[in-house]
Structures are given as C-alpha cells and as structure tokens.
Amino acid sequence: MNNISSSTEPGRRRPWYRVLYLQVLAGVALGIVVGWAWPELGKSLKPLGDGFIKLIKMIIAPIIFCTVVHGIASMRDLKKLGRVGFKTLLYFEAVSTLALVIGLVVVNLLKPGAGFNIDASTLDPSISKAYAEKAHAMSLADFLLNIIPRTFLEAFVSGDLLQVLLISILAAFSIAAMGERGRVYLQVMEHLGGLFFGVMGIIVKAAPIGAFGAMGFTIGSYGLGALNKLLALMAGFYLTAGLFVIIVLGSIAWGSGFSIFRFLAYIKEEMLLVLGTSSSETALPGMIRKMERLGCAQSTVGLVIPTGYSFNLDGTNIYMAMAAMFLAQATNTPLDLSHQVALLVVAMLTSKGASGVTGAGFVTLAATLTTVPGIPIESLALLVGIDRFMSECRALTNLVGNGVATVVISRWEGELSKPALRANLLHTSG
After folding, report:
1. If residue 330 lies in a helix (H) or strand (E), which one and from where to where?
2. Whole-angstrom Cα distance, residue 97 to residue 345?
3. Beta carbons of 219 and 36 less than 8 angstroms apart
4. What's this model's pTM, rounded to 2 decimal places?
C-alpha cells in the first residue's frame, strides 16, 4: 500500500513547492493573513475547513476497521494480543493521569485566572447551555453502553472510534477462529485497506485548502488582538503542553532508545495537518502508515493508535485540568486539595469520552464541571472565544502522545530494535 505522506522515493528529490507539509504551512499562513486583513472574507472560508474534515472523517472508520481486523486476525499468538492490550491500557492510564497532575500543578503555580473577578451571573447562560446539555449524558454507564452500536453499520455511520474498534476486534477474532478458511477474509481486508488508503491519498492533497479555510475562519472570527487576559491561560497551556512533550514524552522516548525531536521531525506532515484543522483525527490514517513504516507491527499499530484516540488524550487532560482551575480562579470559587483531587478523578473518567474532533475537549470540560460542585457551568462562556486556539494545542499533544505510545509498546514487544528504530527515523525524516 502506498504511503500518503509527502516523502519522496529513494534517489529522487521532490520540488519544495510539492511537499505536502510546506503546502499546509503556506495554507495556514495565508489563512492567518486573510483572516486578519479581511475578517468577513475569513469567516466565509469556514466551509473549506469543514469540508476537508468531513472528507477525512468519511474515510477514517473503514481504514481503522481494515487495519485492526487484518492486524489482529493475522496475529497467531492471541496471548500477545491480551498482553499488548494490557500494556497499552496501563501505559495510557499512567501517562494521561500524569498529564492531569501536571496541568493542576502548573495552573496552581501560574494562577492565570486570579484577579479576573468574574461574576458568573452576568454571563450569558445560553452560550454554555448547549455544551452542558451534551455533557449531562456523559456518565460512566452511558459511556460504556455507547461503545456498543445498535447495528453493525451504525459504527461507520456515527464515526465513533470506540464502536469501530469494538466491531473490528470482534470481526478479527471471528476470522482468527476460522483458521485456514479465514485467509480469504484477511486478503480481502488487505486489499480493502489498500483501496481506502488510496482514497485517503487523494483526499489529503486538499489539506492546504482545508488548513487555509479553517485558519482564515478562526482568525476572522476571533482576531489576534481580542484575547485580552485569556492570553495568560493560553500561554500557560501551550507552555505546559510543550514541556510535557519535550520532558515527559521526551524522557519516555529516550528510555525507549529514540529522540523525541527526531520523532517530531518524522511526523511533521501530520502535525502541520493537525495545526491547520485543529483536529487530530485528520492525521490518524497518516499516523497509522507512518508507524508501520517505522517498523511497528501492524497488529500493535492497529490496536494502540485507534484506542489512544479515546484513552490517551494527554493534551485534552492538561487542558481540562488547567481550564477547570482557571474558571475556578476567575470566578473566585475556592477549591481545596480534596476538591482538586476529586476534579482529577472525574476528569480521568470524562476524558475517555473525548475524541479528536474539534471542540470535543470543550464538551468534555463541560462534563467535568457538571460533576464538580462549585464551579459555575455558565463560566464556560469565558473560554468559547479561545477554544479554537486551544484545540490546536490539544490535538497536537494528543497526536504526539499516541505516536510515542505506539513506538514504546512496540519496543516493549521486541518488534523494533534500537538500531532499526534510529535508522528508520534518520532515513525517513530527512
């Protein structure tokens, strides 16, 4: 199957203007200029960004299905599947909890909301009402039941990644149980996967246009100079997420034998795609192919990457901890240590329902606030204007975190040696 990135064939050098990540970067820059200079024109570009994200979401479910089914069904050692699944969930819980703790510590140190002195009763409740209504349904029982689709095809229609993952695992076990008779289905999955990745290769060529439209709308709607005191929260969040990637994920990467900076260079196309669209889902198919090219087993990639989009959202966790405490500080809501611990526990559960779609982190924050007494839900209105800017950082951190997790678990399974990993990163990121 052909790779969808902009990497060139060995011995050939693609002209710089045909390199995808440079095209996306140009689209982002042009969108910023248009949104700043002609705000109304920038706002009108929203359909370009929305259309591109819809195209990506259209193809994600079948790609995940084919990848997971083929990867797991071709794994002869089913004990390995259980072992990989256990290691994956253990890693996810440890790292995502650490992200929550770091977010709480930083926001308590910086106190970006202190002195805001916002009276929640003066805020427009209709702004946060829609998010709160969505959030009220996000209980643990509802979350678990929602993993089961009403029909086999509903998972593909709704686009819920956990539903797709569930039916993929069931289908994979069914094929594995067939023995030799299941080989024909494995071949079908492999060929279908090639078909869908081919479609993805066509769609991703429109990424610069999507990034241009999304960024033009964002800057045209909210502007660069209308952020006021909220810039302190944004700066703190971006700084915390950056340090988390470099220090925490960097240490994990170093312990597994590779450089976090080399890895970031390796996934630069996917990162710029996320930057332009504010959604980590747009880079999911590309990340699957990149991790396989790196040497990770298809079964490991097919299990870790899709699962990580619901269970390993490091950026979303940092955001929720910092945003919730920011709103408490801004509205002068006292939260002692016990309340903050309760907030952390609740966030650990509600974060599992977030996906890579733009704005999902905001709904998840609303779900957290509805279960933590004291912080007025109306205060969400304070963050609506900057959520688009925050979602970019959330999505980028989530993307990097899931990529690092895939490589680390692959290394734990002995699928990838240090020399091979370093050589692949060096060869493919240049």
Report:
1. helix 314-330
2. 9
3. yes
4. 0.71
Domain interval for residue 159: 16-428
- pLDDT given for residue 248 in this prediction: 94
Nearest to 212 by CA among 56, 33, 27, 42: 27
Please tell me the distance from the alpha carbon of residue 88 to that of residue 86, in angstroms, as a whole number. 5
Cα–Cα distance measured from residue 136 to residue 229, given in angstroms and rounded to the nearest whole number: 29
5 in a domain, yes or no? no
* Residues 67-87: tens digit of each pLDDT: 778 877 776 666 777 788 888
Distance CA 46, CA 378 (A): 27
Task: Name the amino acid, one letter, at 398.
Answer: N
Q: What is the CATH number of the domain that holds 104?
A: 1.10.3860.10
Q: What's the pLDDT at 326?
A: 85
Give the three-class secondary structure for 375.
coil
3 domain-assigned: no
Task: In whole angstroms, give the CA distance from residue 96 to residue 54.
Answer: 28
Residue 243, token pair as written in the block: 């340090």
Residues 6+ apart with CB under 8 A from 296: 406, 407, 410, 415, 416
> Computed from CA positions of residues 243, 323, 307, 62, in that sequence, does the dihedral angle turn out positive or negative?
negative
Torsion 119-125-130-133 (CA) sign? positive
C-alpha dihedral, 33 to 34 to 38 to 44, nearest 10°: -150
DSSP 351-367: GGG--SSTTHHHHHHHH
Output the pLDDT for position 3.
42
Can you give the pLDDT at residue 229? 55
State how many domains the chain has. 1
Q: Answer yes or no: is 9 within a domain.
A: no
Residue 93 lies in a domain: yes
- Tell me which residues of the chain have a pLDDT lower than 70: 1-14, 16-17, 21, 75-78, 116, 118-140, 142-143, 159, 161, 222-230, 349-364, 366-367, 370-373, 381-382, 384-388, 427-430
Query: So what's the pLDDT on residue 51?
Result: 84
